[in-house]
Amino acid sequence: MTSGFITTTDGTDIFFKDWGPKDAQPIVFHHGWPLSSDDWDAQMLFFLGHGYRVVAHDRRGHGRSAQVDTGHDMDHYAADASAVAEHLDLKNAVHIGHSTGGGEVARYVAQYGQPQGRVAKAVLVSAVPPIMVKTERYPGGLPMSVFDGLRAALAANRAQFFRDLAAGPFYGFNRPGATVIEPVIDNWWRQGMTGSALAHYEGIKAFSETDQTDDLKAITVPTLVMQGDDDQIVPYTNAVELQAALLPNATKKVYTGYSHGMLTVNAEVLNADLLAFIRA
């Protein structure tokens, strides 16, 4: 079992984990904003236990990766992911992305992984494509004022903003009767505060304004798209429903009442469904 750093062509040090048999099929996990590869603990341990090789990296400016002041955009995110895959020579891989990580997977698979013949399947979980912000093409998106509000809250008091996000809408802990899990909130906050305020600030533009319609249309490998219908972060009607329509080879699963953070609080259900898709 290993972990370490690679240095990208623009000199950015990217932290990665690479656990399990090196001759096993790799499953590569791409985390959401503003977190780190630690957000995949429940999945990495589960799939490691099922004999897979599991790989995850911290996005530039996030977690243990370098807090650089450039490249906080989907193109660099995908290029960094490709640098990790090439360094580890991952083949026949399944790439799974949550939220912003879903955008990273879509761009990586379309522009790097699929052309290089490295990808077997892809999974987008509560993912941001095709685009989060409201546009003429996608009138069901969120108004720019939502993202301006996120930027203002982050700049004013990042620690409080992250605490409120994790304790409220991210896991649905703000819903009546919700079982609030304080250590999950603490762990989300820990991951967020480990990263760079600049990367998180500029990342809001990356995850909200990048139109990935063409990425989705280009992905021909089998792709599972999954989201909860009570996702308060990425509205599912503008995400999973459109992904399923745009992807040439999609399987769609919508979970009644599940939150944006369902991979953590509903890991048992999600892991079983991910395993079934990968084995199919």
Write the layout of secondary structure elements.
Blueprint: E1 2-7, E2 13-19, E3 26-30, H1 41-49, E4 53-57, H2 74-87, E5 93-98, H3 100-113, E6 119-125, H4 144-167, H5 182-194, H6 197-209, H7 213-218, E7 223-228, H8 240-246, E8 250-255, H9 262-265, H10 267-279
Parallel strand pairs: 3-4, 3-5, 5-6, 6-7, 7-8
Antiparallel strand pairs: 1-2, 2-4
Name some characteristics of this structure.
Rossmann fold; alpha/beta; 280 residues
Mean pLDDT: 98
Radius of gyration over alpha carbons?
17 Å
In CATH, the topology is named Rossmann fold
Poorly predicted residue ranges = none
Number of strands: 8
Question: How does the overall form come out from the CA principal axes?
Answer: globular
Helix fraction, binned, reads 40-55%
Strand order of the largest sheet: 1-2-4-3-5-6-7-8
| Name given to the CATH architecture | 3-Layer(aba) Sandwich
Query: H/E order of the elements?
Result: EEEHEHEHEHHHHEHEHH
CATH superfamily: Alpha/Beta hydrolase fold, catalytic domain
Look at the structure and give the CATH class.
Alpha Beta
Number of domains: 1
Q: How much β-strand is present in the residues?
A: 15-25%
Distance between the termini: 27 Å
Biggest sheet descriptor: 8 strands, mixed
Number of helical stretches of at least 4 residues = 10
* Class from helix and strand fractions: alpha/beta
